[in-house]
Amino acid sequence: MTALDPGLGVDDQSVLDLLPIGVVVCTVSGTISLANRVAESLLGGGGGLVGRDCWELVEISGGQLPIIDRARRAAASGRVTAIEATGTARRDVDAGLPVAVTVRVMPDAERLLVTARPSGEELRQAVRLRATEDRFERLATSVPAGILSSDFGMRADFANEQASAIFGLPGEDLIGFGWLDHLHHDDSLAAEAAVSDMLADGIERAFPARVVTAGGRERQVRIRVAATGTLGRDVGFVATVEDVTENHDLNEQLLVQALQDPLTGLPNRTALWEQFGLALREGRTQPAVLFVDLDDFKNVNDSLGHTAGDHLLNVVADRLQRCARASDLVVRFGGDEFVLLLRDVPDRAVVDSVAERVLAAISEPIGVGGTEAVVTASIGIVWPGESDTGEGLDVESSVRDADIALYQAKRLGKNRAESFDANLRDGSVRRIGIAAALRRAIDADNGELTVHYQPIVDLAAGRLVGMEAMARWCDPELGPVAPVDFIPVAEETGLITPLARLVLRRALEPVAAWRRLPGAERIFVAVNMSALDLREPLLAQHVAEVLDGAGIPGDALHLELTESAVMADPDQALSMLESLKALGPSIAIDDFGTGYSSLAYLHRLPVDIKIDREFVAALDDESTALIEAIVALAGALGLPVVAEGVETIEQADILTRLGVPLAQGFLFSRPVPREEIDALVALLAPPPTPKDHVEGAVPDPSAHLS
Length: 706
Ligand code: C2E
Ligand code: MG
Ligand code: MG
What we know:
Elements: H1 13-18, E1 22-27, E2 32-35, H2 37-43, H3 54-57, E3 58-60, H4 64-77, E4 83-89, E5 97-105, E6 111-118, H5 120-142, E7 146-150, E8 158-159, H6 161-167, H7 171-174, H8 178-181, H9 185-201, E9 205-212, E10 218-228, E11 236-243, H10 245-259, H11 269-281, E12 288-294, H12 297-304, H13 306-323, E13 329-334, E14 337-342, H14 348-362, E15 366-368, E16 371-373, E17 377-382, H15 395-411, E18 417-419, H16 422-444, E19 449-458, E20 463-475, E21 479-481, H17 483-493, H18 496-508, H19 511-515, E22 524-528, H20 531-534, H21 539-550, E23 557-562, H22 563-567, H23 570-581, E24 586-592, H24 599-604, E25 608-611, H25 613-617, H26 625-637, E26 641-643, H27 649-657, E27 662-663, H28 674-682, H29 701-705
Parallel strand pairs: 17-18, 20-22, 22-23, 23-24, 24-25, 25-26, 26-27
Antiparallel strand pairs: 1-2, 1-6, 3-4, 4-5, 5-6, 7-8, 7-11, 9-10, 10-11, 12-14, 12-17, 13-14, 15-16, 19-20, 19-27, 20-21
């Protein structure tokens, strides 16, 4: 600085401004008459330093007076021209900056030339800061996200190119509050709140928002803001802005998929849960629930094929929607199950009329693959007015109750609607208990499940010819459970298959021994089969194995099936029955007259007919017509007949007169344990009169059977 002219004038200001250190000219008492630009920024005098007190702006360690004194003495000696000192630049903006200071006395001896520059450590920090800033900038331009930053507050003072690209705006439009102003106005308040919270507590925030580009397009972004600077003093932020529009669209799509059934386009089960919850939260009246299930849809699917099945489901979905109002929700619950959620239902009559409309609409013929199919549906209704608790039901309980009511509708013959009531639930709770206990009993196979036998007699000869095996179950906790209670549960739960196997095996166990007794060589055991057993592809194979295991021929077994079991899917049933018959067993149609047997089918497959006990009970001398008709029909088709439920001598007499060959019922014997049958079978041995032995002659059955 040797070129520095002591007679420095205002014209030389520009030269001073080039210097990299702060330079101030002031009086000995401190009044500044000149300052360069660096001095201004270093000492923080925003409004210019001229006229201000230098010693207020720069606090010299140990005070300025000793330094000035030394400077004066140095000037007088003419050797050292500047005295070095350390001090603090007292700036308005921060706690003060350590500075290295030199003080020299100007030639006029009146004024002082003071220089100031950040002390060594500060300098290094400044360099480091500069490097950091460089690195930040390089980083900011290379990351694939928009970056906005601010030294202080919410106003951005930096925006990278990616940010401009996302916002569709030049960087300068984002500086200041611009970046917040270009968020969707529904999002900008929340964004501002997040940023100001972050500035206050220094905790990073991330939030979704929409950017509205200059072209008016919306982009979905995810913004993350983190604090920079010193908390409570000069906090700024760095914000990264990530464009997630594509992800977002994908998510929306996934959301739609998650709530929509792809086949029918109807809302799915998840949507039902949401909508139900929504209806409850909105505090509207409790929705009514109609649980709709197609009757025997499996048959349609199996016989017409899955494409036709899909078409049918779509048609049903359409019709259901037409039965509902706009405020209702039609849901595909799964498979052939649909749920109608009726909102704001004023009274019960509305629910019933919707149910009627649905039944009528579904049973209209549906064209599939050139033919017409007719399907029917069963409906379970939950109407909130009948909720037994008096409190609102949640979706879970509503759907469960509707399902229970649906089950009842199926039980009562399908193609109908049934409403839920608390008794039904008790029944279903009991069924659940039965299912669990039955499963355990089947697995344990420890004698809780046994077989009783009810004798079947030849009416004319009064002779035991066989017996029907009846499953019996005594659970340690539930006590004896009747077949009418546990067989349907076994069918619903799939337990019927292991149960049928267990019963078949147990029922046939003693037969070989019986058949070895004289007179009992042709004794047979009839075993009941349910419709579901017939659908078991391995049934015939299994029956063959059990016959084998029991060491008896096929004709020792009769299989009893109800009409409805056969008619549910006659073609499938017939082919299974044919393979069963090939093994030797006769097939008997149980409870004949209570269902709708097709004569054509009966003719194709020779079966025995078991006249239901309902007809036998109604039997008296005047009204024999029904049984006569059945006997005549059976005779015409060449089908053997058994009368069930014979309780009185009179009934037995009439049946004998009508030519019914075989009978069973309480008159002869209730179903009894195996040991009692052992005794009866032993009695079949012909009396020891070898001379004039008459085949088939046995004592009067009622004498030893009743
Ligand atoms: P089902 O096959 O028609 O059996 C005849 C039912 O009538 C038996 O009831 C029997 O005890 C009863 N019964 C017999 N004689 C008379 C009578 O003179 N008067 C009256 N009032 N009733 C009589 P149970 O044992 O309660 O069986 C009911 C039904 O449960 C059976 O009807 C059958 O469909 C089913 N079942 C029983 N065991 C099995 C089995 O092992 N498997 C399958 N799938 N079903 C079975
Ligand atoms: Mg039976
Ligand atoms: Mg029966």
